[in-house]
Amino acid sequence: MSQSATHLAGQPAGNSYDDVPYPSNPIDKSHPDRLHCIAAIFGMRPAPVDRCRVLEIGCAGGGNLLPMAEALPDSQFVGIDLSSRQIEQAKTTARTLDLSNVELQEMNILDVDERLGKFDYVICHGVFSWVRRQLQDKLFSICAENLRPQGVAMISYNTYPGWRMRGIVRDMMSYHAQQFSDLKQRIEQAKAMLSFIVEAASKDEPYGQFLRSEAKMLEGKPDGYLFHEHLEETNEPLYFHDFVSRAAQFRVQYLADTSISSMLTKHLPPEVRGTLKILGTDQIKTEQYLDFLRNRMFRHTLLCHADVTLNRKLTIQPVLDLFVASNLAPQDKDLDLRSVGPAVFKNAGGMVTSHEPLGKAAFWHLHRIWPRAERFPELVKEAQRLARSGEPDPEQTATDTDQLAAAMLDCFLGEHLELHSLPSPFVSEISERPVASRSARLQAAQSPIVTNRRHELVALDDVNRQLVRYLDGTHGRGDLVSHLTRLARDGQVRVEINNRPVADGEKLREALANTVDVCLPRLAQCALLVN
Ligand SMILES: C[S@@+](CC[C@H](N)C(=O)[O-])C[C@H]1O[C@@H](n2cnc3c(N)ncnc32)[C@H](O)[C@@H]1O
């Protein structure tokens, strides 16, 4: 570990986000569609997402806001950030994407007032813990003053008790790094310091094990993340109950967590559930005890006006107007949709067992059309068609609707499936001249990582990246093959058959024709193709 002779007197001059921009990415948990569905489940009447007004506070380079704006052209998006460099970057991207529904302003949170107008959704991700208390209070007051009556805000923050532990890593990194004036060196030194401690700490002790898991988590993160998470002067985690009490002082109440399953105790062992029932006399207390139990480090909290009546005894009613999407895959290849008996469906989030034909048929259908979402009444019809013969009468349909809505709600609460308020903003069929979203095309020109229409990051290999760049709706399959062939001849794309490179000739075109046929459905499956 090398040491610099230069010692730091204070924070580097200017806005640290101008010096080290934050990696600006889509945050799927902050999407108004998600906020809408959760608010609806708790009895609110949130604004339709395709005709709403959204404010993002601390929007950085627009990585979250701009893809949303492109996908929802009839909604209005306002992004503010203190960093002129990041706002300029966001403005450049918005201009390139030709977005007319976005307003980006270099602005201090403290300067937000009624001139910015009212919003249906306010998003503030990765800001609260990193600003002084006065600014934190201002964020609550923006929720009170700038949200419409049925508006929903999402604020994320570092929380205790988890940050008591993560804070150790921050403390040691910032203690060591503060003696270096050069930002790059500070980051390098902070990393070197952590590696040193991880190596030196006993591997058998809980402390060493914890440090190793933290170091592993940081390994995959960009420098901008490490700098702002661990080397910024301000980073003030707080307990969930403190956050909610402080919000209440501004007449703003806790609505829900974007990880809805984390609010519930139903997935815990019965004895734990029993004790939590005694301790958790209300929703806030229950969740605070759950945070203790899980050593929670981070929260995405939804807030609304204090005078909104919430329904915490959930009903199936909101599900009836929503769309459902699920990638739960049947584990039995020869699944019989018409018989009674257990059938297991799994995805990365866990598993669901369905016993009734109707439920099995619904999961089967959703799996088949994934990632597309199905409007709930259509899902009932399709499940009935697959599970039974003959036309169902209205009474049967009413029973099926209730049964299926209850099952879908339960799975949503367990985060095994998704609810959406709009039809999927991507296509699953490959058109004659396929189109990738403008955001994805622009991103693919700059990096192999792009944002899809599910508001997630997707990593592309060279061929897919070149394809996405070229999918502007003017090129048919033949053009795509010719384009890739040209790139392969120029050495920009590598083609191999049986591990041997193919650089020219008819074989190359043939190989690339096959590649295009394989890649286009995959891009559709990744929600990268649009109308
Ligand atoms: C950690 S970054 C998070 C960026 C983005 N929301 C995300 O999660 O990817 C915090 C952002 O808040 C902005 N910020 C910090 N203090 C601010 C203030 N007083 N007014 C406006 N923006 C501020 C920073 O410039 C930075 O872009």
In short:
This protein has 531 residues and is of the alpha+beta class. It is built from 19 helices and 19 strands. It has helices at residues 16-19, 32-41, 65-71, 84-96, 133-146, 162-177, 183-200, 206-219, 223-231, 240-248, 270-279, 283-294, 357-369, 376-387, 394-413, 438-446, 462-470, 477-489, 505-525; strands at 53-57, 76-81, 102-106, 119-124, 147-158, 252-257, 298-305, 323-325, 329-330, 343-347, 350-354, 374-375, 418-420, 435-436, 449-451, 457-459, 496-497, 500-501, 529-530.
Topology:
Elements: H1 16-19, H2 32-41, E1 53-57, H3 65-71, E2 76-81, H4 84-96, E3 102-106, E4 119-124, H5 133-146, E5 147-158, H6 162-177, H7 183-200, H8 206-219, H9 223-231, H10 240-248, E6 252-257, H11 270-279, H12 283-294, E7 298-305, E8 323-325, E9 329-330, E10 343-347, E11 350-354, H13 357-369, E12 374-375, H14 376-387, H15 394-413, E13 418-420, E14 435-436, H16 438-446, E15 449-451, E16 457-459, H17 462-470, H18 477-489, E17 496-497, E18 500-501, H19 505-525, E19 529-530
Helix pairs in contact: 6-7, 7-8, 13-14, 14-15, 16-17, 17-19, 18-19
Explain what the structure shows.
The chain is of the alpha+beta class. The chain folds into 4 domains: 25-160 and 237-264 and 297-305, Vaccinia Virus protein VP39 (Rossmann fold), CATH 3.40.50; 165-221, no CATH class; 323-420; 435-530, no CATH class. The protein has 19 helices and 19 strands. It has helices at residues 16-19, 32-41, 65-71, 84-96, 133-146, 162-177, 183-200, 206-219, 223-231, 240-248, 270-279, 283-294, 357-369, 376-387, 394-413, 438-446, 462-470, 477-489, 505-525; strands at residues 53-57, 76-81, 102-106, 119-124, 147-158, 252-257, 298-305, 323-325, 329-330, 343-347, 350-354, 374-375, 418-420, 435-436, 449-451, 457-459, 496-497, 500-501, 529-530. The strands form 6 sheets. It has a 7-stranded mixed β-sheet with strand order 3-2-1-4-5-7-6, with helices on both faces. The chain has a 3-stranded antiparallel β-sheet with strand order 12-8-13. The longest helix has 21 residues, at 505-525. The chain is globular and about 60 Å long. It binds S-adenosylmethionine. Residues 17, 22, 24-25, 58, 60, 80-83, 86, 108-109, 125-127, 130-131, 135, 228 line the site of S-adenosylmethionine (SAM).
